[in-house]
Design a protein that fits this description.
This protein is α/β, with parallel strands linked by helices. It has eight helices and seven strands. It binds NADP nicotinamide-adenine-dinucleotide phosphate.
């Protein structure tokens, strides 16, 4: 019997796969059988080691997603090496913190350009490729609790992640009947570089932990199961959904 969660023979592009959630997802996809294209600014040394140790193919594509300029080369390099592109995980992202009254245009643009603009145009480029394949494809956007909630002191991040949730639904509407599944994972509070400042703030850290029913912060590996599900044929009838992987945060 074929395993609907198997990613054997599939090619997955994961942005920001050198660390944190992107690394956790890249390794989980490789464990399920996928070959990995890691896209980002920093060499994904650890991720490469983990993926190749599993016997999967690995390609590193250096790209700064602060602009859309590297996007065509990402698709070209993937197809040149592996001949196809089945899965895109739009994970690269950053956060800037300041009170709304002091929020600068630089803090707005830096976040929105990577988290929203490049994510959309990479999905567009991957979608064009997938639409030309008889086997379709899977696009997974990494959203946030701030795709549902307002947050505080993170105006551009909230705008980007709320926007990404909307784009997930829009792309699903346009591509669901064409063999492409577009969905999102909304991580809760996960121990990564992104949340280092939050975890260092004793008061905020205690308040956050007190609201998590699971009683602990998440780890990058906690996102693996949802990513494999959304990347595999097990989710073929799932379109435009946000799956919260949050230790129960939203249920509170
Ligand atoms: P992280 O450890 O800081 O990872 C962020 C990744 O994005 C890194 O690989 C980083 O590369 C990459 N990146 C940032 N700017 C980039 C750019 N201009 N070009 C290319 N790559 C860039 O944080 P993380 O928590 O794993 O974040 C991954 C995603 O999860 C983000 O979209 C974040 O918003 C989202 N998320 C995180 C949490 C959480 O609690 N941690 C919760 C919800 C959503 P460098 O290493 O080179 O900087």
């Amino acid at each position: 019997m074929t395993n609907p969660f198997s990613l054997s023979g599939r090619i997955a592009v994961v942005t920001g796969a050198n660390t944190g959630i992107g690394q956790g997802i890249a390794i989980a996809l490789a464990e399920a059988g996928a070959d990995i294209v890691a896209v980002g600014r920093t060499p994904p040394v650890e991720t490469e080691k983990a993926v190749t140790a599993l016997g999967r193919g690995f390609l590193s594509v250096e790209a700064d997603l602060a602009t859309t300029a590297p996007i065509p080369a990402i698709i070209d390099a993937t197809v040149a090496r592996f001949g196809r592109l089945d899965i895109l995980v739009n994970n690269a992202g950053l956060i800037r913190r300041a009170d709304a009254v002091d929020f600068t245009e630089d803090d707005w643009d830096a976040v929105v350009d990577v988290n929203l603009k490049s994510a959309f145009f990479l999905a567009q480029a991957a979608g064009r490729r997938m639409l030309g394949q008889t086997t379709g494809g899977k696009i997974i956007n990494i959203a946030s609790m701030l795709s549902y909630q307002g947050g505080i002191r993170v105006a551009s991040y909230t705008a980007s992640k709320s926007g990404l949730a909307g784009l997930t639904r829009l792309l699903a509407n346009e591509w669901a009947a064409k063999g492409i599944n577009v969905n999102a994972i909304a991580p809760g509070y996960i121990e990564t570089n992104n949340t280092e400042a939050l975890r260092a703030d004793e008061g905020r850290s205690r308040d956050i932990l007190a609201r998590i029913p699971a009683g602990r912060w998440g780890r990058p590996s906690d996102l693996g199961g949802a990513a494999v599900f959304l990347a595999s044929s097990a989710s073929d009838y799932v379109h435009g959904s946000l799956i919260a992987v949050d230790g129960g945060w939203l249920a509170r």
